[in-house]
Write the structure tokens for this entry.
Amino acid sequence: LNIARSGNGTYLTLSYQIGENAAVTIETFSLPSKGKFSEQIVNLPAAAQVEGVKFILTSATASFYVNKITLTPKTTSGGGGSELTDRNLSFGETKSFDAEVGGTFSAPTLTGATEGVAYTSSNKAVASVNASTGAVTINGMGYAKITASAEEDATYKAGSDFYYIYVYDSGTIEKLKTYITSSTATDIYFKLTSTAVVTYAATNYAYMEDGHAGIYIYKSSHGLTAGNSFTGKVKAKGMLFRQLYELSDFTFANAAGTADIPVTDWTIQDLTDSGNTGYKMAESMRVKLTGVTATT
């Protein structure tokens, strides 16, 4: 109760009444200060927590202002009021799962008081979820947060839990580059089915290729060395910088191996073919021009 005394007297009494029965006093407040609002907290007895109960505020000699009345369900044990129970919703300790484009995904089991739970996805383009069952459908590369939540009811507190799905596409560097479409960094989750080899490494940049295509890496203290080789899963950020395909961040799941640094024979005709497809493939690759004659 948020109340203030405005007239003579100091006492205000809170009672409850059920039906035609006599009113029963719950508590009497003493407010000696005039005109100052104060908050009074009352634990309602169990007998007053029934349907149809009427609460009565009375004062024999004083006048009061009632600013606000708030009823709050009791959430701790002990005392007389209703006690709400934790739902203890949980998908388990593991909060991160991998999936593949075109594959299926077995969602972790939600435990706890699951009555009334609704499931949502933060990114339906990556993974959509059945709102009632929690079944997940994989739709594309990227990541999504799957959340299960339930509102407070007469028995349980509100509760929720979540997990992340990282959906990987797979293929060569040539396919990885198809996810880089703008100058804004894009999260890429990719499984290299070929072996990518670092062909050159400087302090803040490097080049990598796999025989199908090459890509430029721009990252301070990247830790790469020419001859490092990688395959398997990689989490990266990709962007176009002056139309150059670039990885600005990356984390490989597998440790680096070693490989000979490749070099591919190309002709000028290969690099200047119709549609510029040769250059798009050779970009950032280590190539050896063959059949070249200096005319002047």
Summary: The CA atoms of residues 265 and 288 lie 5 Å apart.
